[in-house]
Design brief:
The complex is a heterotrimer of chains A (about 325), B (about 350) and C (about 350). Chain A has about 325 residues and is of the alpha/beta class. Chain A is about 30% helix and about 25% strand. Chain A starts with 7 loop residues before the first strand and ends in an 11-residue tail after the last strand.
Chain lengths: ~325, ~350, ~350
């Protein structure tokens, strides 16, 4: 399906907040990854790791004042390649919703509460696909049906608060796929939902990606979700990718202590009762600047003096597996 | 004798309408007939999705919400029949840890006064009667001294130092705040601690710290837990016995391993298949039972089996008409509320295609 | 707690959305905007405290205030006013009551004395030093404003606080009490402030106390509503539940937990009320319901007195009018800036 060149290639993306008197915060610091046709790329990390900022930067949704964005994000469009980070606001607006779509965590606050679902869906169709009124209405019903909303014509007339959480998220996905975008970004799309509903939504996303050939960027804190959905995974910590790998190697042979720590922190449903968890010490705030060394060093069990000798480089470990650790784990035996 | 025995507990919230005089127009059947027992020194895990009434059940045990009917025997006393003041005093024996570690701490109280408050309300602490110094001032100082010692002890047990005493909640990280919440419960030396989603607001790497802490406290102090959570993996990890709730009622109860090995209720099965496992191989190979539709409103629960509107194993007989009771199936205390549990277990009835149920559920 | 399942773990089915916040709030168009504004502040402060930065909210708000030109100009005006009022006897060059230059002013022949070296603002119609009268009048104005606000604050806080506490902790009987109190408050809120004040003043008879009382009572419903709203919003927080779970007595929960966390919006409102109180007090004095002793300076009375000479000596009316406007403006600017600093949605 994929023909080699990525749909979106993000290179050395960095986002710096502040300056002008207040302290600078490097929210994202040299993150690179690619999105491919029909594939799901995952960004995993805890709060403050920069995963959401990354998505907002790609969507051009960060405020222009007080934010500096560096690097490049080259997207392959029918008319040629474009760097999303350098696109004029007008062009970006056209691109959003048509070629580039986003699904947010909280479906209720991302929908306009006083406008019926139908109007919100048809608005996109009319704007980006230049459809007429009745054609758009018909297409909207097809879309809702596509994302598994029963009785779509009735639902189109309803307001967001009349729908359940799962239905709202489906409606939001319908709006995202309305113009058959090439790239979709989902920022914690299932965090606000119950597990059984989450399973439905993940299944739907999987289906859309394989059937439409969309490239999906999945942002989540849940390793389980990543394991089931993503093809390539980037683990972020304090604004940098500490480990990137296809999902097989990442879960089978995690190299970075942070990845290993995360995996050891989650209780697994299939683990026998009483199997101990191995948590990571301290909290997300206990880190040092990447320029001084490994940001994870203060919480790392294998921390050594060399961890503080400047920023650790990204080390390739074969099979598209890279990590940022001077003393990576050897073949972890499970 | 079990430490906590809940018998046919019901909590119905009236739905009121009207401008001047409130009229009751219906009820939300948040908890509708739950019976369970928790043995001393064990952990009972209550799992279910939002709206299933698990949080209300936890609060009803502490009488933080009004109980409509039923009994709650704690150590032989029926809490449901106690008057307000006796219940207030009883609360030193039952404590609660909340989901939102920040929201459950008063932002204007420093940690010291947060932790002292419980001791002072219940008049706990102070040297033994014969060691009590004469004079009111000296007496007060001696009591405060002892209470302080208890507070510091509780803080150290949860892994914080006495330096925390003069600081305020917002100065701590999420995990530390949850430790403070646990210390607040711990300082009263309760028998039972109800943990309502103790880790769901925390970062992944912190969750394990708190879960491990809860476990080590249990083995040190012989605590009994009622852990309420939506995450089956978390509940299974910490609990000896797991109860699965759906729409105000317990649908299945079994020992942690039993439940995982042989889930009997269709809801448990689908819940279990929906929980993501951080392992691609498991994720790719295991069967998935996708439920269609949404949770019905607890104000208007379906007749018969409450799960029948979404159940992939639904049968023509009884499911829609007769409400199944929790009964023991297959011995070893495994209880399930399903008319057809045995036939589902033996494979006699198979699940229908989930997609086909889609329209019917709405 | 007993009537509202909304605090429970239930899905947001619109059918079950029960009068948690509607539980006594007048949605009558008559009360419309003012009530909405008051409630919004209460709700907001509730939200802010949710961030958990008990002290932090105020600290960041203060930092924002220092950058706001509105707040700074308000603060400067208020500070000047306070200084003048507090040190009035030291600042005023002459006695405010002695008609020292009585032989230079003949109102019936349209002879007035304007500003000059020894009388900076000239003389009034009885030959008294206008500047001294203005300065001493500031003191009166401050007294009226502060006392009236205090009256409104105390009575309003008592009513609203008890209603809020009853609604949160009192069960069914508490809800009934809350409902009863709030209906009365709504009725008071529906009456225009000035009308209410005039009624009180007419009942008790004209005096300075009357003005303070009347203006204060007119502010009661605002404070009551504000505090009640804030307390109910705080009452649904987890830390209140935690305190109940701990076995803390209800009285202590209300006084030591809910109340301190609910006072923020009330304190902000006090600043705004001071401005209203000053204007209302002046209006009442102007209507002749104030201090009956005409020799004692008060801006409202001075304005009323000057009215007779408006065509020949307009400056006599302009000075007190300007003073009232500027002072009220100062308090309003400061209050609004404080509210804006605490309100994330109004911020640009």
């Amino acid at each position: 399906m994929s023909n080699g060149t990525p749909l979106l290639a993000v290179e050395e993306l960095s986002v710096v907040f502040g300056g002008r008197g207040s302290d600078e915060v490097r929210a994202v610091d040299g993150v690179s990854f690619t999105l491919n046709e029909g594939k799901v790329t995952g960004l995993v990390g805890e709060s403050g790791c920069g995963k959401s900022v990354t998505s907002l930067a790609l969507m051009g949704l960060l405020p222009s004042r007080g934010v500096r964005i560096g690097g490049s994000a080259v997207m392959r469009l029918p008319e040629g390649e474009t760097d999303l980070l350098r696109l004029p606001a007008r062009r970006m607006r056209d691109l959003r919703g048509s070629q580039l779509a986003m699904i947010f965590q909280d479906p209720l606050s991302s929908l306009n509460p006083v406008v019926p679902i139908g109007v919100q869906v048809t608005e996109i169709l009319r704007r980006h696909r230049r459809m007429g009124g009745s054609a758009a209405a018909k297409e909207a019903a097809v879309l809702l049906d596509r994302v598994g909303i029963p009785d779509p014509t009735r639902r189109l007339r309803e307001y967001p608060h009349q729908l359940s959480g799962g239905m709202r998220q489906r409606a939001l996905i319908a709006m995202a796929v309305a113009c058959r975008p090439r790239v979709m970004i989902a920022d914690e799309p299932t965090t606000a939902l119950d597990v059984t509903i989450q399973a439905q939504i993940l299944e739907l996303l999987k289906e859309l990606v394989t059937e439409e050939g969309t490239a999906l960027l999945m942002i989540t804190h849940d390793l389980g979700v990543v394991a089931g959905l993503c093809d390539d995974i980037n683990v972020l910590y304090a604004g940098r990718a500490v480990e990137s790998a296809p999902r097989g190697p990442l879960f089978a042979e995690p190299a970075h202590p942070y990845t290993i720590g995360l995996l050891g922190s989650v209780p697994r449903l299939d683990a026998p009762r009483g199997e101990p968890l191995t948590p990571i010490r301290g909290s997300v705030n206990d880190n040092i600047a990447w320029t001084d060394g490994c940001a994870f060093a203060p919480r790392c069990d294998r921390y050594a003096a060399e961890c503080l000798e400047g920023p650790p480089p990204l080390v390739p470990a074969g099979d598209g597996h890279t990590h940022r650790c001077v003393d990576p784990a050897e073949e972890e035996t499970e | 004798m079990s430490l906590l025995r809940i018998n046919d507990l019901k909590v119905h919230f009236p739905i009121r309408r009207g401008a001047l005089v409130d009229r009751t127009v219906g009820h939300v059947y948040a908890v509708d007939g739950v019976s369970l027992e928790i043995e001393r020194g064990t952990t009972y895990g209550l799992v279910g999705e939002s709206g299933c009434g698990k949080t209300t059940l936890g609060r009803a045990v502490l009488r933080l919400v009004d109980i409509t009917s039923g009994e709650v025997f704690f150590d032989g006393r029926d809490l449901a029949s106690l008057d307000g003041e006796s219940m207030r005093r009883e609360r030193r024996n039952l404590q609660m840890v909340f989901q939102d570690p920040l929201g459950s701490l008063n932002p204007r109280q420093d940690i010291g006064s947060l932790l002292l408050e419980g001791l002072q309300t219940h008049g706990i602490g102070g040297p033994a009667e014969e060691d009590m110094p004469a004079g009111r001032g000296a007496r007060r100082r001696a009591v405060l001294e002892d209470q302080r010692r208890r507070v510091v002890d509780a803080l150290e047990r949860v892994g914080l130092s006495a330096k925390a005493l003069t600081r305020y909640p917002h100065e701590f990280s999420g995990g530390q705040r949850q430790r403070i919440g646990i210390a607040r419960a711990l300082v009263l030396e309760p028998d039972l601690i109800i943990c309502d989603e103790p880790v769901s607001a925390l970062d992944v790497s912190i969750q394990a710290q708190v879960l491990n802490l809860l476990e080590s406290l249990q083995s040190e102090l012989g605590l009994t837990y009622l852990v309420i959570a939506h995450d089956l993996a978390v509940v299974r990890h910490v609990s000896d016995v797991v109860g699965v709730m759906y729409l105000g009622a317990l649908v299945e109860e079994a020992s942690s391993d039993d439940l995982y090995r042989t889930p009997l209720h269709p809801y448990t099965r689908s819940l279990m298949s929906a929980v993501p496992v951080p392992d691609p191989e498991v994720e790719d190979t295991r069967e998935r039972i996708l439920l269609s539709g949404d949770l019905p409103s607890p104000a208007n629960p379906p007749a018969g089996c409450r799960f029948h509107t979404r159940c992939p194993w639904r049968q023509q007989d009884r499911c829609a008409t007769e409400r199944p009771v929790l009964r023991e199936v297959g011995g070893s205390g495994h209880r399930v509320a399903c008319h057809h549990a045995e036939r589902i277990l033996s494979g006699e009835i198979g699940p229908r295609d989930a997609g086909a149920v889609g329209a019917g559920a709405e | 707690m007993t009537t509202t399942p909304s605090s429970q773990n239930l899905p947001g089915d619109p059918g079950t959305a029960v009068p948690a916040e509607a539980g006594g709030d007048g949605r009558t168009p008559l009360l419309g905007r003012r009530a909405a504004k008051v409630d919004r502040l209460a709700e907001l402060m509730g939200e802010r405290a949710d961030d958990g930065h008990g002290a932090g909210v105020w600290r960041t708000a203060f930092r924002r205030l220092r950058r706001s030109p509105m707040a700074i100009s308000g603060a400067v005006i208020v500070a000047l006013f306070l200084l003048v009022a507090l040190f009035a006897p030291l600042i005023a060059p002459y006695s405010a009551t002695s008609q020292a230059w009585g032989n230079e002013v003949f109102p019936n022949q349209n002879v007035f004395v304007g500003p000059r070296a020894e009388n900076w603002l000239g003389l009034d119609n009885l030959g008294r030093d206008q500047f001294s009268r203005m300065v001493v009048g500031a003191r009166q104005t401050l007294l009226v404003g502060v006392v009236a606000t205090l009256v409104g604050f105390c009575a309003g806080a008592l009513l609203g606080g008890s209603a809020g506490a009853a609604a949160v902790l009192g069960g069914r009987r508490g809800a009934w009490y809350d409902n009863a109190v709030m209906r009365v408050i709504d009725m008071m809120l529906a009456l225009p402030t000035l009308l209410l004040a005039v009624t009180v003043a007419a009942l008790v008879g004209p005096s300075l106390t009357t003005v303070m009382l009347a203006v204060g009572i007119a502010q009661v419903p605002i404070f009551a509503r504000l505090l009640r709203g804030a307390m109910i919003s705080q009452g649904s927080r987890d830390y209140v539940l935690a305190a109940r779970a701990l076995g803390v007595r209800k009285r202590r929960i209300a006084l030591a937990h809910i109340l301190p966390n609910s006072l923020g919006p009330v304190i902000v409102q006090s600043t705004l009320t001071l401005a209203t109180a000053i204007i209302d007090a002046a209006a009442l004095s102007y209507l002749g319901l104030g201090n009956p002793d005409p020799s004692f300076p008060e801006w409202g009375t001075m304005l009323a007195d000057a009215q007779r000479f408006l065509s020949s000596a307009p400056q006599l009316a302009v000075y007190p009018a300007l003073a009232i406007i500027v002072t009220a403006l100062g308090f309003t600017l400061l209050g609004e800036a404080m509210r804006e600093a605490l309100d994330p949605k109004l911020r640009k």
